[in-house]
Structures are given as C-alpha cells and as structure tokens.
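WARN no homologs supplied; continuing
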Amino acid sequence: MSVINISQVNKKDVIEFFQAHWGTTEMVISSGIYDCSKLEGFAFINENKKIAGLVTYVIREDECEIISLDSTEEGKGIGTLLVQVVEEHARQHRCTVVSLITTNDNLHALKFYQKRGYYLVEILRNAVERARAMKPEIPLIGNDGIPIRDEIRLQKPSASF
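OK structure emitted
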C-alpha cells in the first residue's frame, strides 16, 4: 500500500474512480468548475493495486484548496493520510492555508476535517442552487435527508500543518 502522485496512476482508472463516486469527473463549487481527473493530487493504492483513496487540489498563490477527497475503505486512515500529504505539499509550496468547501448536508466531512484541525470560516448561503444552474444533476436532498443548499468553507492555517 502506498501514496503516489495522481500523475503516476492510469488516467482511465482515475476517471472511472470519479465516475463511480461522483457520477462524473466534474466538480462545481463556488471557487470554480473543475475536472477532477485533470487536477493535481495523490492516490492511495491498496495491496490489490487499486485506487482506495484519492485527493485532488489546486494551489492559488498562498492557498491550497482541496477539491475532492474520497476513500473506498472507511476507518483505515486513508483519508487522513491523503490530507496530510496535501498539507505537506502545501507547506513545501509556502502556502499559508489549506482550505476546502463542502455542503451543509455532509456532516461526515465536517466532522472529519474539524477533528484534523480545520475551522469553519464561511457559510455560502444558497451556493448549491447556483451550482445546480451549471450542473443540474446535483441532488436536492443529501445525506440523512438534509436539503443540500449551502456550501461551507473550512480552513487550516499553516501554523497547524
């Protein structure tokens, strides 16, 4: 098992991973529209040589933004390891903050990131409605029956990573 740069993973496997987890490689959030299969990132490859986790990010000036994070094997530390690798990469690029956006229904992500030192810094009210104008397949109802409406921005300052 190992973490490797996404550029070392077969592009077809990366695309299939995103399609299996998101239905598409496209991510529409308030910071932009991204084709996750074309972003920088890292993959966790399991003992069967399959992608068991994948994180993508963009660096803009002194900010590193995590665009996607997925793990197929929950509770094994894969997501934590991938976030730590991104944080180290951000440190090497002299970023002052690592940030991400999630939706109001994603309580699992909110808990995951806060336990790892991330702070809630902004609520973008009705941001998902604007995203749906560009990507209508975004569901109206999300995890635990919660209506998906808002985006929440979380950040971790460089002093913490």
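The mean pLDDT is 96.
OK
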